[in-house]
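User: Here's a chain of 237 residues. Predict its fold as tokens.
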Amino acid sequence: MSYGVIVDVETTGLNCEEDKIIEIALLKFSLGTEPNIISLYSELEDPCEPISPEIQKLTHLTTELLQGTKIDWAKVKKDLDGASVVIAHNMEFDRSFLRKRSELEGLEVHWACSLNHIDWYKHGFKTRSLNYLASDHGFINPFAHRALFDCATTFRLITPYLKELLAKSHEVEYELLASNSPFKSKDSLKERGYRWNPEKRVWFKRIFEKELEEETVFLKEHVYNGKDLSEKIRVSE
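Assistant: Prediction complete.
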């Protein structure tokens, strides 16, 4: 039977090079016109280091609660390996941490992102945040930033949009950089859907290949005074 998996991880921080996974959840569901939940898996993992007050406040996971816990990575690998698609809200975050796990070495899956592969703005929603989207759809996530509840929220949220999500997950994507854009253009860039990267100090927008020409023209005409100064980076695999 063909199935998909929604995955979510909670971590000790945002840097996959330094921080560690402290919780994972997998929601396996059938693919078809009426997706149904097949199974759920959730487990904690002791990072063998104190949990910061910020992460404790966000997840309600404490050093004491995590002590001695361990994720069954063999099960995680088996479930992910058999999936037709693996979905996460803000896929890049979860994927970056999972790729650092030696237990998952050699795992090849097709990823889809419920944040980027559904055109929430086109559907009339002004934010792509998981919990705000849930609220806008008439329900709430009672325990935000706990992996299993985030997976269940994602499943309920994407079900009506699953066909679109799967189709877009196969399209070529680029990160378009408004490099060296003048300060006065920040409001128009923000309104257009660009986000600020404070580390690289650049406005950027993730777009599909078919949108590249139109977006490049916008930058040329409305940001760079007729010059083509934008940069693009292919991000899909």
